[in-house]
Protein: Gamma interferon inducible lysosomal thiol reductase
Amino acid sequence: MHCCKIIPLFIIINVVLAAYHNPRYNHPYHPNVAAYPVKAYQTYYPSSPSHHYTNQPTHYYCNIPPDLWCDSPQAAQQCGVQRQCDALRMHRRKPIKITLIYEALCPYCQKFISNQLGGMYQQHKDHLELELVPWGNSRILRDGSFSCNHGKKECDANRLQSCVIDTLKSSGALPFIVCFERIIHHSTVDQAMHACSAFIRNQYRQIRHCYDGERGIQLQRSAAHKTMSTKPHPILEVPYLLINDYTPSVDNNNLNVMLLPQLLNKWFKLYS
Structure:
């Protein structure tokens, strides 16, 4: 038969008190030990000649707008995104993919393509991957035909541009599309195609065959699928810019359209 020894009460009290005053005893109410894990961060006080370490939870420091989190190692540390910012810099040699979803006769699209996109691409073409998707808010009807915001002329223009993009790729098609968008408002599709034919001279017949045949219709269906399958936000207006296949919210898209040259300059400098 086993028996237990009776331990005097004063010994138990001394053991408890010793443990309580031990810094390793991580009791949530101990006056010398924090109730949650914290890390020491460098905080600079202007009135002091040196840096001091203070114990504060990480979230206390993250009062920086997300657009600036990777602006410096200090900002990334404060907001706990060092690994994410490092990962972005590791991929800095990869081009940024810009996808423009647009309609050929949308005035805002015409202005963006004519006044911004051409020059911007020429400036940054070594660091950009361009994708052009001429569809916008067009619709596929039950009988398989297309309905476009600005009528049949826009459907024809969208189809023609799909053929040019398919033949020359987006970067090669851009000079023709810039030329086309500058004059299509006062021209027919055939007139605009002829006026800008210098940019597609060697592939004119191939593009014309695509435009007049079934291939152009198939390409428009592909453009519709691309437009309607964007994530996480649907395309509600044009022009719409996807950044590396990410669809921003409508408000952020409006800012991106207005500030894209400045944003590209920042992104390229930030990750170079």
Summary: The longest strand covers residues 96-102. Residues 1-7, 23-60 have pLDDT under 50 and may be disordered. The domain at 92-270 is CATH 3.40.30.10 (Glutaredoxin).
